[in-house]
């Protein structure tokens, strides 16, 4: 049933690019810490190479993935087929975040739409690619992307988003360093 891949080949790429949502999982080293699992949508993921992917990290109420990337880098991205043949694909790897102030941010950011003041680009060096059947995943009909996050960020503007980051994104729920600017 399940298969592993040595790299993101054309079949894997096609499956990833046809999904409307993916999920990001990360965790702190502390065994009493909280495992984080976040859905991601919009036009936010790019395949940069046979073992490298990146996604633009937009604003949210938590800062878990960035905090975990800073602490230990462990990450898993999961893609589920909610339409068509059943399939689940996971990309396991090591993550790093690239802040907007980092010189690499402009280059990486050019792969994505011009979102209002993104927090970071998360780069994942993929160490394992595996799929599974997905027989238990329901069939769902895709209606479209929600626009609320983009509208919220636009209303706040760059200064309002900086204020929000200082207030809400300085630390993870487990007290790990997030972003503070």
Could you give the topology of this structure?
Elements (H helix, E strand, L loop, with lengths): L2 E3 L4 H8 L4 E5 L9 E5 L4 E5 L2 E6 L6 H8 L2 E7 L7 E11 L4 H7 L10 E13 L15 H21 L13
Antiparallel strand pairs: 1-8, 2-3, 2-6, 4-5, 5-8, 6-7, 7-8
Structure description:
The protein has 181 residues and is of the alpha+beta class. It has one domain: Pnp Oxidase, Chain A, CATH 2.30.110. The chain is built from 4 helices and 8 strands. It has helices at residues 10-17, 64-71, 103-109, 148-168, and strands at residues 3-5, 22-26, 36-40, 45-49, 52-57, 74-80, 88-98, 120-132. Strands 1, 2, 3, 4, 5, 6, 7 and 8 form an 8-stranded antiparallel sheet that branches. β6 and β7 (88-98) form a beta hairpin. The chain is globular and about 50 Å long. 25% of the residues are buried.
Number of strands: 8
Question: In CATH, what is the homologous superfamily?
Answer: Electron Transport, Fmn-binding Protein, Chain A
Radius of gyration over C-alpha positions, nearest whole angstrom: 16 Å
Architecture in CATH? Roll
Name the shape in a single word.
globular
Give the strand content.
25-35%
Number of helices: 4
Broad structural category: alpha+beta
